[in-house]
């Protein structure tokens, strides 16, 4: 009798430990660093709040994997994961996976909008007028694999892609190893609230503003096109919901 009870309890624990039991599971990777208010390595932030709403709407389960960004995109290209977020659009990224809307991404199905801005050392004369840089005396740094690199290279600027994290980039800038840094708007806001802020200045004109998407693997879209369409539609619906708008407003961000 005791053995039967023990087996029953063990089976129940196994069932309860499987949150996606009986539901479709979709594996998503994301960058293994905090990018507030959008996401944290501990699965917090607005991106995760949005995706939880998508889970509830579709009765599916997202399995989140936190890994370095370039590896995340490589996993997507290899169909080793079902999707990646949050990804801005670059034409060559169509090789990695599928955007909502295909070759011309549908911005209505974005997860959020963010900017890239310029940081310089306190007292530096580096300037950006919205089209051109001036008074550059070295390279402009950006994070490894980030799309802003294409914008900088298109101007034939010297660039440095050797930093994984925004705080690493800021320290290189402060140390004089960079003339300026191109940083995501959310990362820049965090830096300008942190201990490095007294040594930094943020220029007022953004380099670029972009929508960021959940992109899905070629394999998932090919094998389950209806599921892919439902996911992207649910992202749009959840982002426009009063519940999500309230969360975004509380963080003081555009969505």
Structural account:
With 255 residues, the chain is of the alpha/beta class. The chain folds into two domains: 19-112 and 212-251, Periplasmic binding protein-like II (D-Maltodextrin-Binding Protein, domain 2, 3-Layer(aba) Sandwich); 114-209, 3-Layer(aba) Sandwich (D-Maltodextrin-Binding Protein, domain 2), CATH 3.40.190.10. The chain has helices at residues 2-16, 46-58, 69-77, 148-153, 166-174, 185-191, 218-223, 225-239, 242-251; strands at 24-31, 60-67, 83-88, 112-121, 127-128, 133-134, 140-143, 159-163, 180-184, 200-202, 208-216. Strands 1, 2, 3, 4, 7, 8, 9, 10 and 11 form a nine-stranded mixed β-sheet that branches. The chain has a two-stranded antiparallel sheet with strand order 5-6. The protein starts with a helix and ends with a helix. Residues 1-22 form the signal peptide. Keywords: Signal.
List the helices and strands and how they pair.
Layout: H1 2-16, E1 24-31, H2 46-58, E2 60-67, H3 69-77, E3 83-88, E4 112-121, E5 127-128, E6 133-134, E7 140-143, H4 148-153, E8 159-163, H5 166-174, E9 180-184, H6 185-191, E10 200-202, E11 208-216, H7 218-223, H8 225-239, H9 242-251
Parallel strand pairs: 1-2, 1-3, 7-8, 7-9
Antiparallel strand pairs: 3-11, 4-9, 4-10, 4-11, 5-6
Helix pairs in contact: 2-8
Protein name: Transporter substrate-binding domain-containing protein
Organism: Duganella guangzhouensis
InterPro entries: Solute-binding_3/MltF_N (IPR001638)
